[in-house]
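New to this. Look over this protein:
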Amino acid sequence: MRSLIYAISILLAAAVCGATAQDAMSGTLYLTPGYLLTKTSGASVAAITVGRVLGVTNVYGTNANQMNTWAAESFTLTNGASREFALSALTNAFGPVAFWRVNFLVVKAGASNANAIVVGGAAADALPVFSSTDDTVSVVAGGAVMVYKPDAAGIVSTGKVMKIANGGTNTVTGELYIGGAK
C-alpha cells in the first residue's frame, strides 16, 4: 500500500510540474572578448584593452529587453545532411516551446569538426536574417554565429524555420541556443 501511495504522489507531482510552464526568466547577456593589444616602440609600450562589447539584462516578459523562454539543442549531422528546426516546435526542460518571437540566436560549431556547418538557406519560411536560400553563414570548427535583437519585435514571427547543414563530408556536431517569447 505504501508503494502505491508513493507512486500516486510521484505521478501527481509530475502532472503538476508538467502542467505548469516556467513563469520567470532573467539574466544578463555578456559578450566580453577580454583582449589586450600591445605595441612596443623603444622603451614605451602602448596598450589597448578590448573589454565588454555587450552587456544587456533581460527580464521576464514580451517587451523590449524581455524574454520569457529559452531552448537549447545539440545536433549531429552526417555527410551532406541538414536539419530544419521549426521555431514553433522546440522543447526545453518544461516541455514544448512555440516561439512567436526570437531575440537571441546562437549556432555554435563543435570544436573538433573537420568541416564547417552552414547556417541558413531554408527553402521556405526562413528566419528573416536568412530570408533566401542564398543567405547562409559558414561556421568553422569552434566558431559561432550570433544574432541578437532586443526590441519587442525581435527577429522572427511565428512559424519560422532555422536550417543547419553539414558543409562537407565528415560528421559535424553543434549547438543551437534560442531565447525569445512564446
